[in-house]
């Protein structure tokens, strides 16, 4: 493309004169000539390109039209020379032009539009034209058509792009008041609660570095450039010098001619540079138009070169303006012949061109499609509907189309997520990330040195964070260098100084690309930095010392009832037994006839001796009952009340035994955060300045508000500097201090300190993420790598390795089964077995004594020696084949008789006794006689 120079204008002079003469020559080849005028400025370099576009667009129209031929008449003026502009417009009107194209200056264009409105000559412009302060006057705009996008709609397009990019704050750099007016909608999308928008104006000083350094020191990374195209490249070049073209800065260039700038030297910068374009530079129409321009200039023996990717917007608009005007002439000329008229600006009898208003109205309702896309006008002649290409500077192709915009659908991306991901991954190659972190087990720890070993760089560290970032680097193919944040803090915002500290500050100062540790994703931090998807989920829980194991007690089964109750029960047992015995002796109903068959028997018996009374009450309290029951009302009442009492006591004892013995083994005093909030004996605290502290500070839940008030007012302070300090305080606190911390760190501690445990569940739910500066282009790629590691199970393996295996993990992995937690061991109920054994021993001793007593009785009755009686009784007891025994009444006097006679006598005695027993059954006496065993001892 040749520059616009006086020499070049001289070269064009013969062509211009030829065209002027041609305009007055009538017609060529039978076509009716229709002159059209154009006014161009002499300053902008691309005005030459616009003139070429205008001329060869007319030439192409003339090639296809059969009935008329457009004849261009061109004039040149200065952008600020209003007087000369007025004179040139009047010259064109005097020459009979049917339309005036241009000029591109707001100052001179208004004068042209006013004259054209007076003469009713169509005025077609192709530049940005702001809406007047008082609003649009339909009368003044009646004859003007503007192909440049309407100011408000174009401003809305920029606002939609900013919203889509999620820019919460940004800085606007502009160079003229007109530029600031073009950003009206952008300024209006800013709400009172949003981050402030900074607006900076540059002057004619070519040194932009001080301004750029001020923006850099403010931490702003989003910049909108509303400056002339000839200033854009120099400003970005100086931004590169002050390191404002890094990967965390993003620029939006509002000029629709940004694609014409040669960004070759900035293509490899890491910043995101986005611009807007009104045309599709790969379309057939623009390639065809550029071909016409080059071939036409070649025929005129002039060299002109321009690629479709670098065509100026104004040139394309002139091409489309000629096309739509020619269409209007063609359509209206079919019904009524369009004839030019020579008009005079200073004539007293002012005449207007009769066809002008018809042509303008037709163009307003006609829809066309040109190089710049669909052309649709509103009632005021403004181009209210158009399409924009959103383009982004890439390393390989220069500006590349990534999305489109239109007033109906807004931003619509044309590239796939896969393309975006591939582009980001490609940019990561051969890049070294600075990864900030802090020391804290098990995320990052200093590696234990071996004798004589020297460690440097990343080899100094080990831990979950290091292996996590190492796995991500292998997936994405980048290098990294671990660095520790100087103050060792996570990152909290100081409302007094309005500054961040810790890892967040490190990222804001651009001293690190990533921050990896147990950094919790919070809303406050999210406003300052970006986070990847969480690589670990967690919540707040309570670290507390395990309950002290109580010594075993063989008689724990007695615990459900106090000693006083046991004494009262024993007293009641004896008292009721005595009362029952006394009442039964007094009650007539409990005295019975021992021989029911003998109705005239004068003797009655009472079975309720003290032994039977004790047995009845014992059977009742043991829940077994008794074979004999009282018959009198008083005794039955006493027995009934005792049974009711025994039932209540037995039920209570059984219901509380297991629970009481289980509780005996523990002395736990808290089980949840609610328990902590309700008491004041056990103190509790958190890490100072951490996310857990922020959770309690900002919580609206009443329980947590009470806990925060308790922590804040506690003296001495319950806050700690680290989790390790909190852990040590719990250990030394002897169950008088609890520590609230994140569950992941709590789990790590309880895997190594078996006397500590987690109390209750999680108080909230959150996640750890990898932090990076806002608007980092690598967030999507790193999040994708984290997701891939999660799906492959590598995150679970890493956690298992560093929580349960490395650095002493796995020492406290034995977790009691929930079904066994309430089971009682032999140490708790062994006393029951002791009592049973003692009872059996007593019963055995009593049985021996009863046996010996019976032996003595047999010896007396049978008149034998006790030794002989003992041997005979033992012999009978050990003979398991005998199932019955006779009752002894008398003893044989003959010790010399044979066994047979003795056996006969014994059988006779047995029969006599059985007959007697059948007739004289008495309860107590019969029981005593049945127990007697009689044997006849043979002297031989």
Automatic annotation (TrEMBL):
Establish whether keyword Lipoprotein is in the entry: no
PANTHER family to which the protein is assigned, alphabetical: IONOTROPIC GLUTAMATE RECEPTOR
Full protein name: Glutamate receptor 1
Domain Ionotropic glutamate receptor C-terminal: from-to ranges: 432-805
Q: Name one GO molecular function term.
A: glutamate-gated receptor activity
- The record's disulfide annotation reads 754-812
Keywords of the record = Cell membrane, Disulfide bond, Glycoprotein, Ion channel, Ion transport, Ligand-gated ion channel, Membrane, Postsynaptic cell membrane, Receptor, Signal, Synapse, Transmembrane, Transmembrane helix, Transport
Swiss-Prot/TrEMBL site (Crucial to convey clamshell closure to channel opening) positions: 670
Domain of life (superkingdom): Eukaryota
UniProt KW Transport keyword: yes
Main subcellular location of this protein, as a coarse class: membrane
Q: Where is the signal peptide?
A: 1-30
The transmembrane residues are 565-584, 641-661, 829-853
Give the record's membrane topology.
Multi-pass membrane protein
- Where in the chain is the site Interaction with the cone snail toxin Con-ikot-ikot? 788
Domain Ionotropic glutamate receptor L-glutamate and glycine-binding: start-end pairs: 442-509
Q: Which residues bind L-glutamate?
A: 520, 525, 691-692, 742
Taxonomic lineage from the root: Eukaryota, Metazoa, Ecdysozoa, Arthropoda, Hexapoda
Return the annotated region ranges for Disordered: 890-917
The entry sums up its family as follows: Belongs to the glutamate-gated ion channel (TC 1.A.10.1) family.
């Amino acid at each position: 493309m040749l520059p616009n120079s006086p020499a070049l204008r001289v070269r064009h002079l013969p062509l211009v004169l030829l065209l002027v003469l041609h305009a007055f020559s009538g017609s060529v080849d039978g076509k009716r000539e229709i002159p059209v005028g154009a006014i161009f400025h002499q300053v902008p370099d691309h005005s030459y390109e616009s003139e070429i576009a205008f001329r060869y667009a007319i030439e192409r129209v003339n090639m296809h039209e059969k009935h008329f031929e457009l004849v261009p008449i061109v004039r040149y003026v200065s952008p600020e020379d209003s007087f000369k502009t007025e004179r040139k417009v009047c010259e064109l009107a005097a020459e009979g032009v049917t339309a005036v194209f241009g000029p591109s200056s707001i100052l001179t264009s208004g004068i042209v539009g006013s004259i054209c409105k007076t003469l009713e000559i169509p005025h077609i412009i192709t530049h940005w034209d702001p809406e007047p302060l008082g609003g649009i006057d339909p009368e003044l705009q009646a004859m003007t058509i503007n192909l440049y996008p309407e100011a408000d709609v174009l401003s809305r397009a920029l606002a939609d792009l900013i919203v889509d990019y999620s820019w919460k704050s940004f800085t606007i750099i502009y160079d003229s008041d007109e530029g600031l007016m073009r950003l009206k909608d952008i300024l209006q999308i800013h709400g009172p609660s949003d981050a402030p928008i900074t607006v900076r104006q540059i002057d004619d000083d070519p040194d932009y570095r001080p301004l750029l350094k001020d923006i850099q020191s403010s931490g702003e990374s989003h910049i909108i450039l509303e400056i002339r195209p000839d200033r854009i490249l120099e400003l970005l070049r100086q931004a590169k010098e002050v390191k404002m073209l890094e990967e965390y800065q993003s620029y939006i260039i509002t000029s629709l001619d940004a694609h014409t700038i040669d960004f070759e030297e900035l293509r490899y910068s890491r910043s995101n540079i986005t611009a807007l374009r009104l045309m599709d530079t790969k379309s057939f129409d623009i390639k065809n138009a550029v071909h016409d321009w080059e071939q036409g200039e070649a025929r005129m023996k002039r060299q002109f070169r321009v690629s479709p990717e670098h065509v100026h917007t104004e040139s394309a608009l002139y091409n489309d303006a000629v096309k739509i005007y020619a269409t209007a002439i063609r359509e209206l000329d079919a019904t009524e012949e369009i004839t030019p008229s020579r008009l005079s600006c200073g004539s007293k009898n002012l005449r207007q061109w009769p066809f002008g208003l018809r042509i303008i109205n037709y163009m307003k309702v006609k829809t066309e499609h040109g190089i710049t896309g669909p052309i649709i006008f509103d009632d005021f002649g403004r181009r209210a509907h158009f399409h924009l290409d959103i383009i982004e500077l890439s390393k390989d192709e220069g500006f590349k189309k990534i999305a489109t915009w239109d007033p109906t659908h807004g931003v619509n991306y044309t590239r796939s997520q896969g393309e975006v991901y591939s582009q980001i991954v490609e940019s990561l190659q051969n890049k070294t990330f600075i990864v900030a972190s802090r020391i804290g087990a098990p995320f990052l720890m200093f590696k234990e040195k071996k004798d004589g070993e020297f460690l440097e760089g990343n080899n100094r560290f080990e831990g979950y964070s290091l292996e996590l970032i190492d796995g991500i680097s292998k997936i994405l193919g980048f290098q990294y260098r671990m660095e520790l944040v100087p103050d060792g803090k996570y990152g909290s915002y100081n409302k007094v100084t309005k500054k961040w500290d810790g890892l967040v500050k490190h990222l804001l100062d651009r001293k690190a690309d990533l921050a990896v540790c147990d950094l919790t994703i919070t809303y406050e931090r999210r406003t300052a930095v970006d986070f990847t998807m969480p690589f670990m989920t967690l919540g707040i829980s309570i670290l507390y010392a395990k309950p002290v194991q109580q010594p075993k007690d063989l008689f724990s089964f007695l615990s459900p009832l106090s000693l006083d109750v046991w004494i009262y029960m024993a007293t009641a047992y004896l008292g009721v037994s005595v009362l029952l015995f006394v009442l039964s002796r007094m009650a007539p109903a409990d005295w019975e006839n021992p021989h029911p068959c003998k109705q005239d028997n004068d003797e009655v018996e009472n079975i309720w001796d003290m032994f039977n009374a004790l047995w009845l009450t014992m059977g009742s309290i043991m829940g077994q009952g008794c074979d004999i029951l009282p018959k009198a009302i008083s005794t039955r009442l006493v027995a009934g009340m005792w049974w009711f009492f025994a039932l209540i006591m037995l039920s209570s004892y059984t219901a509380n035994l297991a629970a009481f013995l289980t509780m005996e083994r523990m002395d736990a005093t808290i089980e949840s955060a609610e328990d902590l909030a309700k008491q004041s004996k056990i103190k509790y605290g958190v890490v100072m300045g951490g996310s857990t502290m922020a959770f309690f500070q900002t919580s609206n839940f009443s329980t947590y508000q009470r806990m925060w008030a308790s922590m804040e007012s506690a003296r001495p302070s319950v806050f700690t500097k680290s989790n390790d300090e909190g852990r040590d305080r719990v250990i030394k606190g002897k169950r008088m201090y609890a520590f609230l911390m994140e569950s992941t760190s709590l789990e790590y501690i309880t895997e190594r300190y078996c006397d500590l445990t987690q109390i209750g569940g999680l108080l909230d739910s959150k996640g750890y993420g990898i932090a990076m500066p806002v608007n980092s282009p690598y967030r999507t790629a790193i999040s994708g790598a984290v997701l891939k590691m999660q799906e492959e199970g590598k995150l679970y393996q890493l956690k298992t390795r560093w929580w349960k295996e490395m650095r002493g993990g796995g020492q406290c992995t034995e977790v009691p089964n929930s079904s066994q937690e309430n089971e009682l061991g032999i140490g708790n109920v062994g006393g029951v077995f002791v009592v049973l054994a003692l009872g059996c021993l007593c019963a055995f001793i009593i049985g021996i004594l009863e046996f010996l007593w019976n032996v003595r009785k047999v010896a007396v009755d049978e008149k034998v020696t006790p030794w002989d009686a003992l041997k005979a009784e033992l012999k009978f007891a050990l003979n398991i084949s005998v199932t019955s025994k006779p009752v002894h009444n008398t003893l044989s006097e003959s010790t010399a008789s044979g066994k047979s006679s003795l056996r006969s006598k014994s059988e006779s005695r047995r029969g006599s006794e059985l007959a007697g027993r059948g007739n004289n059954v008495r309860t107590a006496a019969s029981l005593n006689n049945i127990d007697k065993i009689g044997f006849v001892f043979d002297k031989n």
